[in-house]
Amino acid sequence: MSADTAPLFIPVGLGDLELPNRFVMAPLTRCRAINHQPNTLMAEYYSQRASAGLLITECTMVTEKTSAFGNDPGIYSAEQIAGWKKTTEAVHNAGGRIFMQIWHAGRAAHPLLNDGQECVAPSAIAIDDEVHTPQGKKPYTVPRALTKSEITDLVEDFRQGAANAIAAGFDGVEIHAANGYLIDQFLRDSANQRTDEYGGSLVNRARFLTEVLEAVSAEIGSHRVGVRLSPLNSFNSMKDSDPQGWTRWLAEHLSRFDLAYLHLMRADFFGLQQADVISIARAAYNGHLMVNMGYSPAEAAQCLAGKQADSVAFGTGFLANPDLPQRVQAGAELNTPDQNTFYTSGAEGYTDYPTMA
Predict the structure, then answer these.
(1) What CATH number is attached to the domain comprising 304?
(2) What is the total count of domains within the chain?
(3) Which residue in 172, 166, 254, 245 sits closest to 206, CA to CA?
(4) Spatial separation of the C-alpha atoms in residues 91 and 254, rounded to whole Å
(5) Count of beta carbons in the 10 Å neighbourhood of residue 184
(6) Range of the domain at 165
(7) How much of the chain exceeds pLDDT 90, in percent?
(8) For residue 139, how far is the Cα from the chain centroid?
(9) Contacts for 338 with CB less than 8 Å, ≥ 6 apart
């Protein structure tokens, strides 16, 4: 093991778990859940990567007919709970730990992916882009603005989804409040133009997330709950007028929940918005800070050594290297990810990446 990467192999606490290393597998949409049902192939995929300190699943629907990708998994039915048990049992048998990322797509869902069901959002503002549907690429539709009673119903969906995840054997849940999906749509002012208590000030825009956190924490315990934020990411037509102030306020706000972790994405997929949000979060958040987006193992180790974060999430590194920690420890060459198979439906480019000889 190189001294350059040694900090990645220091154990660390996260909630009530002890992670044997600081490699986290980031949530990665892979579209292998045919008809939204988790399956044996997915169990093999996650268990192959169980040497990570923590695995976080792909985004998983808490509400039926809110798909953004077509074959994204759900956690709203008894059949899905049973299907996910295959994954949690396989990961735990391999010595791993796994959280489920629970999620609602909001305006990123499309009627053609959801039996004609209209999409919803904080405000009636569409994503300025196109989405892959069974009828080819189509523009996103204008969502219907949620009523207050519907928001209350969605809080309950998140609570039930978290309960279902624990029933399926997961060690905890990550609430997806990033990347332009429903909770992020409430949080950032480009997508939230409401004039009621869920819009306007940051306190109001964070109200939905706060209610979800309170409900989920009461259900499964805050030590089993993480939150993912993306203050800079412009994906899905997102922007906030003050991402650094937004980061500081939310980091302070989330500190009072005694969460397992805060998972912060440091950059913008498209490079349109740039700022240092990691140091702001580190100073303002009183808890385990997980960081993500484009870290090499050497940079991740440097980040940990400098106390800028407590763990680092890797995306395509784990996608193509099921044994990523072992490869880094040995100084071995990494597999190259095949982007052509990121969102296909079979084993190719999913469970067939080789481990070290």
Answers:
(1) 3.20.20.70
(2) 1
(3) 254
(4) 29
(5) 26
(6) 6-341
(7) 99
(8) 24
(9) 320, 349
* Within a domain: 79: yes
The pLDDT tens digits for 88-140 are 999 999 999 999 999 999 999 999 999 999 999 999 999 999 999 999 999 99
Q: How confident is the model at residue 357 (pLDDT cuts 50, 70, 90)?
A: confident
Q: Give domain status of residue 352, yes or no.
A: no
Considering the domain boundaries, does residue 86 fall inside one? yes
For the segment 279-289, the average pLDDT, to the nearest whole number, is 98
**Cα gap 325→333, rounded to integer Å:** 12
Rounded to an integer, what distance in angstroms lies between the CA atom of residue 86 and that of residue 93? Answer: 11
What lies within 8 Å, CB to CB, of 309 at 6+ separation is: 278, 282, 289, 290, 291, 303
Phi, psi of 212, deg, nearest 5? -65, -45
Question: In the numeric block, which tokens belong to residue 105?
Answer: 């797509």
Residue 5 is encoded by which pair of tokens? 């990467």
Smallest CA-to-CA distance from 5 within 245, 315, 304 is with 304
Identity (one letter) of the amino acid at 86? Answer: K
Which residue's structure tokens are 């900090």? 7
What's at 250, amino acid-wise? L
Task: Give catalytic residue positions.
Answer: 181
Position 308 confidence tier, pLDDT thresholds 50, 70, 90? very high
Q: CA 103 to CA 181: how far, in whole Å?
A: 8
Q: Is residue 268 part of a domain?
A: yes
Where do the DSSP E strands lie in the chain? 12-14, 17-19, 23-25, 54-61, 98-103, 120-121, 130-133, 136-139, 144-145, 172-177, 225-229, 261-265, 289-292, 311-314
Q: What DSSP string runs through 49-104?
A: TTTSSEEEEEEEESSTT--SSSS--B-SSHHHHHHHHHHHHHHHHTT--EEEEEE-
The three-point CA angle 100-168-291 to 5° equals 15
The pLDDT tens digits for 251-279 are: 999 999 999 999 999 999 999 999 999 99
Query: In this structure, are strands 225-229 and 172-177 parallel, antiparallel, or unpaired?
Result: parallel
